Amino acid sequence: MTLEGKGALVTGAGQGIGRAIAMNLARQGADLAVVDINQNNLYEVSSEIKKLGRRCLPVVADISNIPQIIDLIASTTSFLGKLDIAVNNAATTSHIDFLDISEDDWEKMTHINGKGTFFCMQKEAAQMIVQGHGGRIINIASVAGRGYPKTSNAAYAATKGSVIAMTYIGSQLLGKHGINVNAICPGMTKTGMLEGIISKRSIGDNQTPDQVENDMAKHIPIGRINTPDDIAHLATFLAGPGARNITGQALNVDGGLINS
Description:
- By secondary structure, this protein is of the alpha/beta class.
- The protein folds into two domains: 210 residues, NAD(P)-binding Rossmann-like Domain (Rossmann fold); 36 residues, no CATH class.
- The protein contains eight helices and seven strands.
- Strand 1, helix 1 and strand 2 form a beta-alpha-beta unit.
- Helix 4 packs parallel to helix 5.
- It is globular, with a radius of gyration of 18 Å.
- The mean pLDDT is 95.
C-alpha cells in the first residue's frame, strides 16, 4: 500500500468522485477525514472506510463557510495527528441556460466552488507548512474550466477555471515548502450531478435519459463516459510517491474530449 501511514482529507466525500477518491486512498493505506454537507452519505462512507481497517473521521461541514473550514482542519489534524494529503472536491452545479443564470446561481457556485476551494487550500497549506514535511494538495476542477462548450452552465465553468488558476499559482508559491499542488479536470463522469443534468436535458430535448447519455458518449473519442474510479485512480497517483516531482498541472481525464 503506497500511502501507508499517510493522513488524508477529502471534501465532498459523501458521493460520486469524492467518495471514490476517499475509498481508493483508504485502499492504499491512508487514514482519512471525510467531509460533506450531507450527514447520511458521509457516515456511510466513513463506515465503509473503517471496514477496510483504516481510521476515519466523518466531518459535516459547509466549505463555503470559512470558520467551518478552520474547525475542519483543526479536527482533522487532531484526529490524524497530521495532514499529508488534501483533496478539494466539494462543488455544486446545475444545468442552466446561459440567459437564465441568476445572481443567486452565480453566488452559490462562486462561494462553494471558488471561495470554498481557495480557503480550503489556504488552511491546508498553512497546516502542512507548520508540520514542515511538505504535502500534496489535489483540486478537482473540470474540463468546463478549460472552456468545454457543453458544460452545465457558464458560471460553473468560470469557477472551475478559477480552480485551475489557483492550482498553478499555489504550486508556484508553495513549492518551496515541499507542497505539490495539482488539479484534475474530469470530463463527463457518471455521478448524481451528471444524472441531474441528463434528466433536465432529456426533458428539454424530448429524449430518454439513456438517449441523452449515449449521445454524450458519441462525442468522446474513447467512446465512454468516466466512472468516479477513473478520477480516483489519478488522484491516488498524485498523492503517492510516483508523483513527487509533478506540480502545477491540471490533468484532463475525459477520454480525449478536449485537447487543451
